[in-house]
Amino acid sequence: MENFAFRPADPEARPGQQITVVNKDSAAHTVTATDGDAFDTGSISGGDSGTFTAPSEAGRYAFVCTFHPNMTGTLIVR
Ligand SMILES: [Cu+2]
């Protein structure tokens, strides 16, 4: 995350892949699936990094930062 946006906004991953996200802002962010609880990094402090595991089923998974609802993205699992 950088400048209150996800980069890229539509990352791709393999099913079950471990994904590391880096927060380059000073504010805390999260990567949280909007569809149920497919994945959630929890709060990642500014300058810190976090991980989550991609869902095991292929598909498109919208996600959001719970602190900043205008920060959105879509994880593409294939
Ligand atoms: Cu945020």
TrEMBL record:
- What are the EfeO-type cupredoxin-like domain coordinates in residue numbering? 3-77
Give the highest taxon in the source lineage.
Answer: Bacteria
Query: Which InterPro entries does the protein's record reference?
Result: Cupredoxin, EfeO_Cupredoxin, ET_Amicyanin
The cross-references to Pfam families, in alphabetical order and at most eight, read:
Cupredoxin_1
The protein's name is Blue (Type 1) copper domain-containing protein
Taxonomic lineage of this organism?
Bacteria, Bacillati, Actinomycetota, Actinomycetes, Kitasatosporales
